[in-house]
Structures
1.
Amino acid sequence: MTGPVLREMRWWDIAPVLELERELFPEDAWSEGMFWSELAHARGPRSTRRYIVAEEPAAGSAEEPAAGFPEEPAAGFPEEPGDGPGGPRPARIVGYAGLAAAGGLGDVQTIAVARDQWGTGLGARLLTELLHHATAFECEEVLLEVRVDNTRAQRLYERFGFEPIGFRRGYYQPGNVDALVMRLTVQDPASPQPEPETTTDPTDPTAPTDLTTPESAETHG
């Protein structure tokens, strides 16, 4: 096994994703309705969203996940993995990420990785996949917001060429934590971009400007 499998997020993933969301972001977790709303815009010829999950295959599973994106079942709900007597342990969602795109601009809505997966490179895999989707959407730039105190995520984004361009004051509620806004000019999403020679201290108020338009959805970083 080479690690978690990345695949399209579907409606049946909302429950485990929401559980991980609340564990990682207890103060500003997305609601179930927000995930439903995002997935409603993730399919069809006019789709503007792409959401992916990282899934650890079920224990004892001998088959690789099917390629492609299966259609919804005609009726009813699929049986949960492991429901039958002696069935395998259900697959586990250990990460997820989402992208919104419109008018040549992409926006990383969220990236989250289970704590026991930190340091494995899963966050970089999720971000790389989002940037592939940004290219498919013909985005020229990709934006994201990240908490100013989340330096671990900021270092990941800098590796991919994201640069700080401003702040959104009090963006993360109810903690009233500022968001650092970062931007990437889309080039080759297959590999991280070289690190810049200098990095901007997000606590330096003289560097990026203060952005006050709350148009982008929350990004947990």
2.
Amino acid sequence: TGSSFGKNNNIVLMLEKRFGAGETVTVITSTEVMVEVEDDGMEDEEIDDEGRVVFDDFEQKTGVQSLLLVAIKKDSQPEPLYVECVFDRYGVDVSRAHVGLGCTGFMMDQGASAATLYHAYMERAGEDVKGEDEEPLEEVAPASSPPFDELDDEMQSHFKGLLSERGVDTQLADYIMDVLNHMEQCQYVDFLTKLEDWVAH
């Protein structure tokens, strides 16, 4: 199943499915945590007529990356497994994985925070994520898990396989990007329509 909702002009996209007999897999992202990135690419090697190695000028490419929170809830476990990821059209990279609620931010962009996605997940699940003073989720204590790239190769491979088995892969990443782009376009068209109607009347 899928759902989307707006919050402060940002779109939150949440997809959920049952996996096996006792798991619910939920993926959450938002336009609020999308960023444009520049990829300098690679220089292509060529051999000129005199046998010398030369490099073609590379083209700077601009793309979009976003943050993705995967929550895997087992009926037999009190807390979900959370996997924090960065994704674009070409795949999903894991940043951190831990059991239970955490708020660590993403490794590649210290200015972005996973808090938005945790809050969206917990809010839609009907759970209270705010403290007594109603502070946002940034006040939650950080997870104690290490960054994903500090885990041994076998453990990293296990987590990647776990996500792939549950459909969190390149195909899903490409689909989510298409959906977010479409929803942003619809939001923009709706804005123009309302503005035109206001001016006309």
